[in-house]
Each structure stands twice: as structure tokens, then as C-alpha cells.
Specification:
Length: about 220
């Protein structure tokens, strides 16, 4: 649990790769293929947890029989004498749970390390199923991931080819790279991947682009 305390102050740039372990949301189906399930009472929610408690919270929730997701990515840390790959949370301080909020909220809050549910205007708002689906798809792909703190400003695009075909997001240029950014309103953070610009097409004006960056 305290492993992260031993990997501070690396001397070179951190490289982010999707986690090699089986992602806990790997069984999530595309919402269009599972309409009946999406209409049920169990929804995804984001919970805020104590610093460096993400993994132990995720494990304890699973032991309780509560469906949870902890997106991970592998980072390479470089010291003067060695390099080491470690798995860290993609979104530090957050774990996702899929629950019946009317029945399981208390059990989640009683889990050691859990601080609170993420809310908007004091209301616990569910995360759309398609957000969790695309998050899993991005982690499962071989594309280079980066965590984003700032709301993306860029052209709205559809992904027409590649492992993320069907995803909508915003494209931005970073150095000489084209990066596709998707934004998660629930935690006010996003994920970006380096992507071949030939896989993208601008979103047509007649489409509802208001939610494009919130996929």
C-alpha cells in the first residue's frame, strides 16, 4: 500500500501505458447492446477515497460483493541505477462502483478508506454506462494514455477506424502528436490517447456536440 511512497522523485519522464492486468470493467458491454440492463436500478457512481487507498478500497469492495472498478495504468519510473514498472490509478483518489444506490450506498460508505460519493449540488449523480464502456476500451487498447486535468479545447471528432471506432471526443495537438481527449464530468478529469489523425473525422454541425467532450 505504501509502495508509492518509495517511487517519488524519479529522474526521468514517466511513460504511461495501459495496465497489463485484466481491467475490472472488462465485462462491460456497449450500452446499445445491453439496453435492458441499462434501465435497471444498478448504476455506476464515483467515490472519493483517501490518498493511496484506491487499491485497498477496490479489494475490500469486491470482498463485500460490491461491483467496483479501479482503472490502472503502468508507469515506468527511472532512477539513476534502475528502472521499474509500477501500476498506479489512472484517476488518483477515485474508485467507481456499480450499485443500487438505495440499498448499497451505506455499505460503500462503511468501507475503510472511502470518504464520500462524488456529488453535484449535493446530489449523487450516476455515471452513464457508455462512459464506463469507453473508459474500459481506452485502457484495453494499445494506445498511449495520459491523464488530463484541464477541460479539453479542440475540434470535436468521431473516431472512424482503429480500436476506439465509434468514440467521440476532442482532438488536440501536443508537440507533434495528435491526441484524442475524452472528459468525465463525474470527476472533472479526462483521459487522452495518441491517435492517428487519419482515423478521425470532424463531427458534423447538425449533431448534438454539446456532449461530445463528456463521453
Amino acid at each position: 500500500m505504501n509502495q508509492s511512497s518509495n517511487i517519488q522523485n524519479p529522474t526521468s519522464k514517466i511513460q504511461h501505458r495501459p495496465s497489463s492486468i485484466q481491467h475490472p470493467t472488462s465485462n462491460i458491454q456497449h450500452p446499445k447492446s445491453n439496453i435492458q440492463e441499462s434501465l435497471g436500478f444498478r448504476n455506476w457512481f464515483a467515490i472519493y477515497v483517501k490518498s493511496r487507498h484506491e487499491k485497498c478500497v477496490h479489494v475490500e469492495l469486491q470482498q463485500k460483493g460490491i461491483e467496483s472498478s479501479l482503472p490502472l495504468m503502468t508507469v515506468t519510473r527511472q532512477w539513476s541505477d534502475r528502472r521499474k514498472k509500477v501500476e498506479v490509478p489512472l484517476f488518483r483518489g477515485y474508485v467507481f462502483v456499480r450499485i443500487d444506490i438505495s440499498k448499497e450506498k451505506f455499505d460503500v460508505l462503511q468501507t475503510d478508506g472511502v470518504v464520500k460519493f462524488v456529488t453535484f449540488n449535493n446530489v449523487t449523480v450516476p455515471i452513464p454506462e457508455d462512459q464506463m464502456y469507453w473508459l474500459q476500451q481506452m485502457i484495453a487498447s494499445d494506445l498511449l494514455l495520459s491523464q488530463e486535468q484541464d477541460f479539453p479545447v479542440g475540434t470535436e471528432v468521431d473516431v472512424m477506424f482503429g480500436p476506439l471506432k465509434g468514440l467521440k471526443g476532442r482532438v488536440k495537438q501536443k508537440n507533434s502528436e495528435s491526441r484524442l481527449v475524452v472528459w468525465f464530468d463525474a470527476i472533472m478529469q479526462g483521459v487522452s490517447v495518441e491517435i492517428d489523425p487519419t482515423w478521425l473525422t470532424p463531427v458534423r454541425l447538425q449533431k448534438n456536440v454539446g456532449a461530445i467532450a463528456h463521453v
